[in-house]
Write a structure and sequence with these properties.
Layout (H helix, E strand, L loop, with lengths): L2 E5 L3 E6 H13 L4 H10 L8 E3 L5 H10 L4 E4 L4 E4 L4 E6 L16 H4 L8 E7 L5 E9 L1
Parallel strand pairs: 1-3
Antiparallel strand pairs: 1-2, 2-4, 4-5, 6-7, 7-8
Length: 145
């Protein structure tokens, strides 16, 4: 089985090449994501020498988040030195959450807030994953207003 390797500061993600290619093909063809096409070309180069393909592009982190979130792949936590399957990781929420459509600021606003002086704050969110022991493996900002 060919494996795609993605490293972060505290972890080494291992993903099935076929699953990675499937996701990148969707991003490249249906959504016209240039970075996805670039990575897809790079990992599609046939190689008899190695079964491992290392990917360094920052954009690929978003693909890793998506695949790990879907329970695909595994990761080695370099802090505790253990390997974990994707489904055993803990979800970590960043900022205002995973989606700008699910923001909960916890404030109830009255009619005055509609017409008062307001700042236009920048809100961001994202998610990541922790190993079962609580070590941060990957965290990425996925949206910003």
């Amino acid at each position: 089985m060919n494996t795609v390797i993605f490293k972060t500061e505290n972890s080494v993600f291992q993903l099935d090449l076929k699953k990675v290619k499937e996701r990148l093909e969707i991003l490249a063809t249906e959504y016209a994501v240039d970075e996805a096409e670039t990575i897809l070309r790079r990992i599609s180069i046939p190689s008899d020498e190695s079964k491992l393909i290392q990917v360094k592009q920052d954009y690929f982190g978003y693909v890793v988040l998506e695949l790990i979130g879907a329970g695909k792949g595994s990761v080695i936590c370099e802090i505790c030195g253990k390997m974990y399957e994707a489904q055993n990781l803990k979800l970590l929420t960043l900022g205002a959450g995973d989606s700008p459509f699910s923001i909960n600021t916890g404030k109830k606003r009255g009619i005055k807030s509609l017409f008062g002086k307001r700042k236009n704050p920048s809100i961001f969110g994202g998610h990541g994953f922790l190993c079962p022991e609580g070590h941060k493996l990957i965290v990425m900002e996925t949206w910003r207003t």
